[in-house]
User: Fold this.
Amino acid sequence: MGHVEDPRGQVVARTTHSSIRARAAAVLVLPTLLICASTCVSLLRPSSVAAATSHALTLYSVATGAQYINNNDDEARGDVNNPYGTQALHGAALAHVENGNGPFAGDQAIFTFKLYGGSNLKASAGSAMLICQYNFNKNAFCDASYYLRGGALIGGGPLNFNAKRFALAITGGTKTYSRAAGEVDVSPSANHAQRLSFIMSSSADQSGDQAMTLYSAATAEQFVNNEDDRARGKGNNPFGNYFNSTPQPTQESVYGPFPGDQGLFGSVLYGGKDANKSSGSAVFTCQYGFGRNGSCDASFQLNGGTLIGIGAFNFSAQNYVIAVTGGTGKYRGAHGTVHVSPSTRETPVGELENRLVFVFD
Amino acid sequence: MGLRGRNGCGSGSGARLAERPRNRCFSGCCAVCCPLLDRSRRPGNWQRRAVMRSWVRPGWRPVGRMEASAAVCRLKVRLVFLADATRCVSYTPEGALMMRSGCGSNKAASVVLGLALTTCLLGAVSFACGVSSGSAAVAARPQRLTLYSAATAEQFVNNEDDRARGAGNNPFGAYSDFTSSTEEKGGGPFPGDQSVFTFDLYTGPTLKTKAGSAVFTCQYGFDKNAFCDASYRLTGGTLFGAGAFNFTTTMFTLAITGGYGNYIGMTGDVETTPSINNAQRLRFVIQRAG
Assistant:
């Protein structure tokens, strides 16, 4: 017997041992307990912790198609409501000359790609599509979808079309990628291809920042009045029947923006105690729906990385919320919200129209 | 993450470990860790003090309940068995697992066992942090939600007059030339077109009980593929989705990328399939981002 029981029936260790037996026991116990410990830590951990594990994936893309949408005839100043404080920017309608100088804010571009597993472009790995809306200074916000075996990866972010390298946030996915979060870094490769380096994890640098407050000052606005392009779509769609029998008003300056119109808003960001420290810039790329409701892709280019968000709100609202869905660099894998409210804060750089409170999950 | 009391871990008592009465388990502490901790100040029990030192750090919180875990209980039994084999452990009158302080020449074994116990305890605590606390527990488990959508309005934007070959710079190298599509009738939508759809959401296929609304803003690419941003306004918050699918299909899946309100930080996907009454069945599988 290796033990005795006390009167309560509890196990009590014996008081004499030989050192040899103890060492033997230690040798036996060490590997067993180490296995126990590692099993304990790895198997009993919550899945959320496991999900934070970094995964890397490298693919190569080759463009297979492109379509450019020159919305030159639709670019106009939007005189209607918006919560971005761009009233001071209202002026004469922009007169852009596209040839040679474009793309301009409001234009669009669509790209499709084939994906490969290696740089020799032999083993097919799927396909991809980028749909980009240009904003200011040849920058664009692109929605990206990568179709791979096992599901799709969804991402987006800003990129400059003069750049050869850029990073997009991976904000989610479908099926096996339904919990994906990270970023994809795109760089040139041989054979007119691009190298896509996916990093599926949250940035460690971000862990210290739980909240931050910034202020924005509007710098640019572009309204895209697609009035001449609105038409009933008789084509296919997966949404069954629908009806749109109510005549829609058409006077843009009074009732607009209308469904299908777009708005692009640029601003600079300030932070610090006195809100006088330049902290980056933001661009909202918005598509209007019904009743002046808009859906906006937001990108915040900050020191150390980019935050990506999406929001759906009424353009008559003064307060609204943007959901943070991802980021790049320091903000890779970020989630949370941005609460936007009006501000009348005066600084040496001028009036700051909006207060943005970032809260990270 | 480790032991750090993130996401409300250990919200059961809210009391600091150092503040609780001796020899009393604070609520939610398990049969494994609590006795060890309660006895931690007993002289000679260096192993338990090591556990305490590693546990009580600024910003850390007590763990939540662990007794729900059968795995932890099995772990305890296994540890006791192994510890008994070394003759260096015993039970306290309260049933706590104890390491003998004066295990003499078995010091090496004691060190090994103590370290292993600590490591195992850390793992168990880490697990407990995940399963016990409110939001964290919810975060780890996927939530399933089924709704039904019926389209209420649509606006199509035919950008036919705006399609042109872009001669400007782009970072995507060479690509094969595409002939611009201009004949919308019957063949559209074409690249560059857009559409906006609104939906009412219902809890059942009969479309009687309203659950919210949804909006899709879609931009078409090639071959009737479109990328759509979707927002689902539900009671308590909004879910956002995004993804590309072919507009000739009847079934598609979007990624859920985030949300507001109760759905902050939610990720997952939503599978859309046809339903009766010209509706679509939406099956959400979501969980909080890790």
In short: Residues 1-113, 122-139, 174-182 of chain B have pLDDT under 50 and may be disordered. Residues 5 and 207 of chain B are 43 Å apart (CA to CA). The first helix of chain B runs from residue 33 to 38.
